[in-house]
Design brief:
Blueprint lengths: L3 H21 L6 H8 L3 H7 L3 H12 L14 H10 L7 H17 L1 H28 L9 H22 L7 H13 L9 H4 L5
Length: 209
């Protein structure tokens, strides 16, 4: 079992690195700066993390709560489940920090392909897998068109949410507060199997996209 002092030092390094990455960018943050800010020696940091990329990946896991158990949205109401999945924010109390870090993270990943692949595998794959499973269930139960490629569905659903995170939250702009509902309705208007109780907003929302 890790000693309390060791656990505390570990947390200090993660918090220091997170704040520096968000403030300066990943490229511009050195291990020396992380050691100085955290009060943990660089030698100790290197005992836990081989390099800055490994530390950054753990910071991302910490920031996004990858070790927390994620809920499974499977109520039987596909529209409600899609909206819940799109709105779900693991480690929601760190939302502001996620938004601050995201532009730096995207820039760093664009220059470092290996890191980008590791980031996607560690942080992004779980929500994608959950959404993929939901779409496959929808196809299986006859709620979504059999012709739907789940990967295309993921792109169509996540795209508007990423747009909000990357552009609107950073640069401003008008976008509906219930964006997840608009995205789900537009998606279901295109790929949902038509029923007599079709949702009233399914057609109107198409104009938004």
């Amino acid at each position: 079992m890790a000693r309390p002092r060791s656990i505390a030092a570990h947390r200090k390094v993660l918090e220091a690195a997170l704040n520096l990455f968000a403030e300066r960018g990943i490229d511009a943050t050195s291990m020396d700066a992380i050691a100085e800010t955290s009060g943990v020696s660089k030698a100790t940091i290197y005992k836990h993390w081989r390099d800055k990329d490994k530390l950054c990946l753990e910071v991302l896991g910490y920031l996004h709560g990858v070790d927390e158990e994620a809920p499974v949205f499977d109520s039987g109401d596909l529209r409600a489940d899609l909206i819940a999945q799109l709105n779900y924010q693991p480690a929601a109390h760190r939302k502001e920090m996620k938004e601050r870090l995201l532009p730096h993270l995207m820039a760093y990943s664009a220059k470092n392909r290996t890191f980008g692949e590791q980031w996607r595998a560690r942080v992004l794959e779980r929500p994608r897998a959950q959404l993929r499973d939901m779409l496959k269930r929808g196809i299986q139960y006859g709620k979504l068109a059999k012709s739907l490629d789940p990967e295309v569905g993921i792109a169509l659903l996540i795209g508007p949410m990423l747009y909000r995170h990357v552009f609107v939250n950073r640069f401003g702009g008008k976008i509906p507060a219930d964006l997840a509902a608009y995205a789900a309705d537009a998606f279901l208007a295109a790929y949902g199997v038509k029923t007599k109780k079709r949702h009233k907003r399914a057609r109107a929302c198409i104009d938004l996209f």
